Recover the amino acids of this structure.
């Protein structure tokens, strides 16, 4: 091997290591962000309804994702579906959604007094 090919191999190795470290960092960031959203949603329900977090169980979780609708030569739509959770508190299910940087839940209409 000549000197030029050795330096090229070192550069490739260096950039591959940088790419691998970046991918690991990105994956860890996504996982931590997702876990913090779930924890914050649980805190939202606990605060709003005056219960402790230990009384809340997570039934389901739907991750935020992108959906598309495509019809050839007619339309192309893209939208973001927000993260959603279903929590159970004392036998009642609460649907919580992270929408426009806020947590919202469905009101239990049968429990509201007029």
């Amino acid at each position: 091997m000549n000197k030029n090919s050795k330096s090229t191999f070192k550069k490739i190795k260096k950039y591959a290591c940088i790419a691998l470290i970046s991918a690991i960092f990105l994956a860890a960031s996504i996982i931590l962000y997702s876990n913090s959203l779930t924890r914050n949603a649980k805190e939202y329900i606990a605060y709003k309804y005056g219960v402790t977090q230990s009384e809340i169980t997570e039934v389901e979780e739907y991750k935020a994702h992108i959906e598309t609708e495509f019809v050839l030569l007619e339309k192309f739509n893209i939208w973001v579906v927000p993260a959603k959770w279903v929590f159970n508190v004392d036998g009642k299910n609460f649907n919580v959604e992270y929408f426009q940087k806020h947590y919202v839940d469905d009101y239990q209409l049968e429990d509201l007094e007029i």
